[in-house]
Amino acid sequence: MIRFVRFLTFVALLGSLVLLSQRAAHAQTYEIETKRDIVYGTGGGEKLMLDLATPKDAQGPRPAIVFIHGGGWAAGNRSSHFGHIKEAARRGYVSVTVTYRLATDKKNKFPAQVEDVKCAVRWLRSQAKELNVDPKRIGAIGFSAGAHLAMMLGVMDQGDGLEGQGGSADQSSKVQAVVSYFGPTDLMLQYPPTSKAIVRKFIGGSKEEKAETYKRASPITYVNAGDAPMLLFQGTKDVLVPYEQAFVMAEALSKAGVPGRVELLLGRNHGWGGKEITRTVDAGWKFFDRYLITP
């Protein structure tokens, strides 16, 4: 089990590294400032931290992006995205990479991870004036388990719960655009044995034992009109997240009238490289630009 979680972390890191592989032509680039180890809230009695990158001398309130690391909800580290928040800041986005509680055998089961990333978005809004952030233009991006959490931020409304007690309770935790790389969308569907064990650890029980919790932990459960536009990338030979996950999410988003798109990469596994990752990363930047920058 540990070996597979480490594999998930490696895949997420491998995929995310290419966010820096090619800096596409951009209308303007900014000098940046960074800060590390900022406490954004608490979870289960623990301090929750993030790293921040901001564009210097950018005019007007800026859009923001939250980067969420993968690792099967049980591994990974926000530092894997530190270079990526700097790239986002160069492009004009206030950006953060966040720590969330990791699921272990004995603690931090769902919804701890969802509560923590929600708290991070609320904190970002609470600091909007100080950070020069437009609270109406916040996006989220993630790989694998991080993509699952990003999608939860895009579909959950305040009335859906799972806000936790981490802080900044007067702010909304919903984002306005999501980019997901091979993230699970419906935990009630069939998964390969390896993934089933990872999800079981995340939830704290099997689907048969905790069906309602599996539904509450699934982004597809909350899809409705007005949710964040989404860009989902999914390989058709993914050994961990079956590509049917993208199909069902596409159907739900279409039915609700949520804009965006789902792209299947034929023959690709749980992550990819080469020209395809360069192309999909560039598409992700353009998606955020469209929904968070373009008037």
Description:
With 295 residues, the protein is of the alpha/beta class. 36% of the residues lie in helices and 21% in strands. The chain contains 9 helices and 8 strands. The protein has an 8-stranded mixed beta sheet with strand order 1-2-4-3-5-6-7-8, with helices on both faces. A hairpin with a 2-residue loop joins strand 1 and strand 2. The radius of gyration is 17 Å and the shape is globular. Residues 13-25 have low confidence and may be disordered.
Class per helix and strand makeup = alpha/beta
The percentage of residues in β strands lies in 15-25%
CATH architecture classification: 3-Layer(aba) Sandwich
Provide the CATH superfamily.
Alpha/Beta hydrolase fold, catalytic domain
Short account of what is shown:
This protein has 295 residues and is an alpha/beta fold. The chain has helices at 2-17, 82-90, 112-126, 128-131, 145-155, 193-203, 211-216, 244-256, 274-293, and strands at residues 32-43, 46-55, 62-68, 94-98, 133-143, 177-181, 230-235, 260-265.
Helix-strand blueprint:
Blueprint: H1 2-17, E1 32-43, E2 46-55, E3 62-68, H2 82-90, E4 94-98, H3 112-126, H4 128-131, E5 133-143, H5 145-155, E6 177-181, H6 193-203, H7 211-216, E7 230-235, H8 244-256, E8 260-265, H9 274-293
Parallel strand pairs: 3-4, 3-5, 5-6, 6-7, 7-8
Antiparallel strand pairs: 1-2, 2-4
Helix pairs in contact: 3-5
